Automatic annotation (TrEMBL):
Upper classification of the organism: Bacteria, Bacillati, Actinomycetota, Coriobacteriia, Eggerthellales
Binding site for L-aspartate: 120, 124-125
Residues bound to ATP: 9-17, 118
Gene Ontology MF, one: argininosuccinate synthase activity
Provenance organism: Raoultibacter massiliensis
Name assigned to this protein: Argininosuccinate synthase
Keyword annotations from UniProtKB, A to Z: Amino-acid biosynthesis, Arginine biosynthesis, ATP-binding, Cytoplasm, Ligase, Nucleotide-binding
Complex formation: Homotetramer.
Primary subcellular site in the record, as a coarse category: cytoplasm
SUPFAM superfamilies per record: Adenine nucleotide alpha hydrolases-like (SSF52402), Argininosuccinate synthetase, C-terminal domain (SSF69864)
UniProt pathway annotation: Amino-acid biosynthesis; L-arginine biosynthesis; L-arginine from L-ornithine and carbamoyl phosphate: step 2/3
All residue ranges annotated as the Arginosuccinate synthase C-terminal domain in the record: 176-393
Amino acid sequence: MAKDKVVLAYSGGLDTSVCLKWLQDEKNLDVIAVVGDVGQEHDGLEQIKQKALDLGVLDCQVVDMRQTFVDDYLSKALYANAMYENKYPLVSALSRPAISKHLVDAAHKYGAKYIAHGCTGKGNDQVRFEASIMMLDPSIEIIAPVREWDLKTRPEEIDWAKAHGVPVPATKDNPYSIDDNLWGRAIECGVLEDPWCEPPSDIYTMTVDPADAPDEPEYVEIKFSKGIPYSLNDKQMSFLGIILELNKIAGSHGFGRIDMIENRLVGVKSRECYEVPGALALIEAHKALEDLCLEREVLHYKLGIEQSWANAVYNGLWFSPLKEALDAFLASTQQCLSGTVKVKFFKGSCTVVGRKSSYSLYDYALATYDADDAFDHGAAKGFIDLHTLSAKTWASNRRQEGASADVFSAEKAQGPLKKGKYETVPEIAEGDDCSDIVEEAEQAMYGAAVKA
Ligand code: ARG
């Protein structure tokens, strides 16, 4: 009897290679491995494919997804200036739905009943894969081997691999978990799990240490048409080409490193390091053009939409109706977003130093303090009268009712602040015995001193 088929998201690394073998041996499935090229560093796609074939897959598809990734995913992220928690440009969160789309396509092509991925049960990526797959085809069943098997540590996984004929990389084990694509690189685990530990310089590969960056600044002019970049320093290039080039330029000036504590969807805070030189430079430039061209109310409203968009995508809802509706709003705002932005890279920074556009809403005559000033200064008085009318009405009511001026002071209105014992920090000199202070504090907090 023919075996059931499973499409596996395959990278060629140890985890997904063990997944591959495990699906064959433990689940008795025929495996179709899909390798998605989203611009990550790899040791050669042909080699990765050969490795899967050697392990006896039914087929191994290597898909160059870079163009779709740029056109259908990164362009929307740029429209949204997408940054989760105002810091992280969603590197991995953007690639997961793109890869999922190809996994579902492959499942349909090969008549596979299952799709499998190599994510752990603790991260966001499992959610993104599974939510995307479910929304694209709810009839496909998902297998997450890493969540199911009881290989708890890396050495256990290596032992299993050796016992089952899965080649184990001879290179020294990388202590970090890395995920990368055109939009940047995410680095987790190892010493980074201590939030106090400064990231060792060897975690970075796309950016130089800002201290080692050139002593001369570099200026770059980026031209946008309808929100998408199309020219770098007056040289016309594809969006994909611009990302690759800006990764190099910005990275060579040490720009684009992020070290943050991030709130995962599954409720865990994790320490994450990223390097996103090109993505961050493009987002900064894109925002600067929006500052110039978007009408104030649209710009302000868009800030909230951007945050909702980033949250939806971070949380795996790329194919959701909410995300689609937000995309429609964003696309509308980009219709007249064309122009040029000048940025300056220097020692780890990227600063926008100039912007121009034929859609600019910046009006010199309105803005200037010189003789050319066309702003109606006389109109300001009436404007302020009406702008403040509501609050003035409130204020005069309070005054008539005899409320003292104190009513306007938050502290007085709420009564005096309770003065607690530890309101003021006790002065402690080096070498002081603090045990009585600690005991008292514990007494106050827990009702008893905590025994060591
Ligand atoms: N924390 C980031 C996110 O959730 C990065 C995840 C990177 N994945 C990995 N396998 N290292 O998007």
